[in-house]
């Protein structure tokens, strides 16, 4: 088989694997296993950690946050170890798309913040840590999770330049735009002053 065909086949494989990893709805799985109900009928109806927290179960919310981040990181790290940086970046992108648009949930998934942070930690850990810090500062000062998410996304491109992660700059920009797109409703509510605060019902 020609080299170019082999490379294309490998990229497709890691892209598909990244998507499948990203599409695992850990929030819904944990809510079901721990008897917390159907997340679609709770709070915002979202499948992420912020909405899991609205069930009152902090352990489930923490596990959702960790697992949603881990699936993005695992996709990147596996692809990098087995097929190189191009495959790693593609796997990361597809993991994010898998979380936001999972085939199992009729392409109606989460907003991708934890997965976004996990991908960045695996791609370039200083950038990932910086974005985690930006999320924490934004969320703590405003008591609004989406403000933290938008702060982390806004900081990512700048941090990639600062820490010399230019090889992932395009991917970082695409992921940032995706985070903003998934939060477009939140942005409207922030402007209107109606965005719910952390731990409150949507």
Automatic annotation (TrEMBL):
UniProt entry keywords in alphabetical sequence: Acyltransferase, Cell membrane, Lipid biosynthesis, Lipid metabolism, Membrane, Phospholipid biosynthesis, Phospholipid metabolism, Transferase, Transmembrane, Transmembrane helix
UniProt GO molecular function: acyl-phosphate glycerol-3-phosphate acyltransferase activity
Origin superkingdom: Bacteria
Protein's pathway: Lipid metabolism; phospholipid metabolism
Membrane topology (UniProt): Multi-pass membrane protein
One example of a Gene Ontology biological process annotation: phospholipid biosynthetic process
EC number: 2.3.1.275
A cellular component term, taken from the record's GO annotations: plasma membrane
Entries under Pfam families matching the protein: G3P_acyltransf (PF02660)
InterPro entries assigned: G3P_acylTferase_PlsY (IPR003811)
Catalysed reactions, semicolon-separated: an acyl phosphate + sn-glycerol 3-phosphate = a 1-acyl-sn-glycero-3-phosphate + phosphate
Keyword Lipid biosynthesis carried by entry: yes
Subcellular location per the Swiss-Prot or TrEMBL entry: Cell membrane
Transmembrane segments: 12-31, 87-104, 116-138, 158-181
The protein's enzyme class: transferase
Family affiliation: Belongs to the PlsY family.
Subunit structure: Probably interacts with PlsX.
Function recorded in the entry: Catalyzes the transfer of an acyl group from acyl-phosphate (acyl-PO(4)) to glycerol-3-phosphate (G3P) to form lysophosphatidic acid (LPA). This enzyme utilizes acyl-phosphate as fatty acyl donor, but not acyl-CoA or acyl-ACP.
The protein's name: Glycerol-3-phosphate acyltransferase
Native source organism of the sequence: Sulfitobacter alexandrii
């Amino acid at each position: 088989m020609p080299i170019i065909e082999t490379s294309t086949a490998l990229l497709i494989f890691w892209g598909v694997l990244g998507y499948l990893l990203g599409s695992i709805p850990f929030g819904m799985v944990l809510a079901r296993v721990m008897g917390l109900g159907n997340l679609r009928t709770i709070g915002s109806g979202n499948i992420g950690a912020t909405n899991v927290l609205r069930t009152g179960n902090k352990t489930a919310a923490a596990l959702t946050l960790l697992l949603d981040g881990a699936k993005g990181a695992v996709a990147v790290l596996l692809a990098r170890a087995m097929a190189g940086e191009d495959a790693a970046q593609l796997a990361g992108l597809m993991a994010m798309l898998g979380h936001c648009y999972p085939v199992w949930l009729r392409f109606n998934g989460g907003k991708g913040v934890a997965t976004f942070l996990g991908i960045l930690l695996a791609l370039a850990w200083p950038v990932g840590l910086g974005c985690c810090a930006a999320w924490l500062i934004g969320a703590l000062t405003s008591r609004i999770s989406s403000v933290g998410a938008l702060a982390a996304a806004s900081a990512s491109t700048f941090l990639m330049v600062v820490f010399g992660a230019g090889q992932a700059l395009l991917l970082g920009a695409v992921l940032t735009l995706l985070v903003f797109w998934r939060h477009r409703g939140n942005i409207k509510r922030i402007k209107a002053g109606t965005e719910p605060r952390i731990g409150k019902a949507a």
